[in-house]
C-alpha cells in the first residue's frame, strides 16, 4: 500500500462506484457526487458552448474551459491532502484546545433590571426622564467633554 493510498478517504473496493470524472482525475480527498461531477464536466462544456455561440469567446474555449475546471478540482484535492497531512501532525492537546475554542456557547443573556419593556396589555410608551435632569452621560450642546483619563492628570 502506497503512502497516498493510505491517506485516501475512499476505500479501494469502493473506488469502482465513484463517478468517472473523479476516477479519471484521481481524486483522493475530494469526493464529488454524480451531480457535481456532471456540473463540473458537462456544465463547463455547456457554458463554453453558450459563450462560443454568443461569440464572446472562440470555439477553443469548449476544450479549454473543462480542462481548466478539471485542473482547479485537482488542485483543490491536492490542497485538501496537504491540510489533512498538516492536521494529522498537530498534537492532541492542541486539537482539544481548538475544539474548545470553536464550541458554540448556549446560554441565557442577562438583561439589566433598568431595561423597560411594556407588558402585555400595557401601552407601549417609553417612560420620560425628569424635566430638569439631563440623561446621565449625555452632554448638552456647547458643553466641554473630557475623556475619563484626562481629568486625572
Secondary structure elements and pairings:
Layout (H helix, E strand, L loop, with lengths): L2 H5 L12 H6 L8 H20 L7 H28 L3 H11 L51
Helix pairs in contact: 3-4
In short:
By secondary structure, this protein is an all-alpha fold. The protein is built from 5 helices and no strands. It has helices at 3-7, 20-25, 34-53, 61-88, 92-102.
List keywords for this structure.
0% strand, 5 helices, mainly alpha, 153 residues
Number of strands: 0
For the largest beta-sheet, the strand count, sense and barrel status come to:
none
- Give the end-to-end Cα distance, rounded to a whole number of Å: 74 Å
The helical percent reads: 40-55%
List the helices and strands in order. Answer: HHHHH
- Work out the radius of gyration: 31 Å
Description of the structure:
- With 153 residues, the chain is mainly alpha-helical.
- It has a domain at 3-88.
- 46% of the residues lie in helices and 0% in strands.
- It has helices at residues 3-7, 20-25, 34-53, 61-88, 92-102.
- Helix 3 packs antiparallel against helix 4.
- It is extended.
- The N and C termini lie far apart (74 Å).
- Mean pLDDT is 76; it is low at 1-5.
